[in-house]
Amino acid sequence: MRTILFEDIVLAVEKLCIQAAHELPVDVLGAMTNALKYESNPRARDILSKLIENATIARDEFIPICQDTGVAVAFVEIGQSLTMAAPANFADATITDAINAGITLGYEKGYLRKSIVNEPLDKRQNTQTNTPAVIHYDFVAGEKIKITLMPKGGGCENKSQFKMFKPTADKAEVMGWITEVVKNAGADACPPFVVGVGLGGNFERSCLLAKKALLREMGTINSEPFYVRMEEELLKQINSLGIGPQGLGGDTTAIGVLIETAPCHIASLPAAVNIECHAHRHKSVTI
């Protein structure tokens, strides 16, 4: 059994917040650079070039890639042989407390915009800390903890959708709906997009699968040949919409479609689409 300190988690999450806001992942930047090679629309090429330049400036000059530094979404894998030592003045502290403390510090020290309100419909007062985070836990073998932070912008998150299909729905029907979701997102969600798709599970799991799909490295191949083809066909179908970078036309409406699946009930076919903008920010650390 290994023990990790509360403070170590806080420090790691603080750094993740700042890094994720300033450094676009290499695979995402590579996907945009690759899209630029094949973009035929001059205006779209110019916009893609500016988006790539923006990401480079953000990294080199340590400026947030986007002013919307997002909801802090954390995916946490906890080894079953790991425990956490709480500080003496906070004896009941949990890993959730440590993550939220790290986000509070990261958003403060990184001068990142704090966008979380304390409740959704009544007073909507800003918490001033960008917490609480949205945290998803998985328990795995071992004695380490892996934390992946995804600052998820409001504009693209607002365009995400869920649908419960009849189990008789075929591939074409599901693909048509996914493409329509992207079409409806349009310029509001800051294309070019990364499109996360969750199929199966149940109501809530399909939505979580769609978001987890966004963590797959761009350019990697789906483990199932059926979904390899579906991802390729969807990307082609979505790019044929002509929405283009920032919604101003072109061949590059999306730079990737990533699908995750799970078993589901015989009477169900849940599907979810989680839209991600071109500033597809996420960073991981293993302690």
Describe the fold and architecture.
The structure is a single chain. This protein folds into two domains: 2-19 and 65-152, no CATH class; 155-280, no CATH class. 38% of the residues lie in helices and 24% in strands. The protein is built from eight helices and ten strands. A four-stranded mixed β-sheet has the order 4-2-5-10. The protein has a four-stranded mixed β-sheet with strand order 6-9-7-8. It has a two-stranded parallel sheet with strand order 1-3. The protein is globular, with a radius of gyration of 20 Å. The mean pLDDT is 97.
Overall geometric form: globular
Reading side by side through the largest sheet, how are the strands ordered?
A: 4-2-5-10
DSSP summary, beta strand count: 10
Can you tell me the number of structural domains? 2
Q: What is Rg?
A: 20 Å
- Secondary-structure element string: EHHHEEHEEHEHEHHEEE
Rounded mean pLDDT is: 97
Percent of residues in helices comes to 25-40%
Low-confidence stretches: none
The biggest sheet amounts to: 4 strands, mixed
- % residues in beta strands: 15-25%
Measure the end-to-end span: 14 Å
Number of helices: 8
By oligomeric state, this entry counts as single chain
Secondary-structure content class = alpha/beta
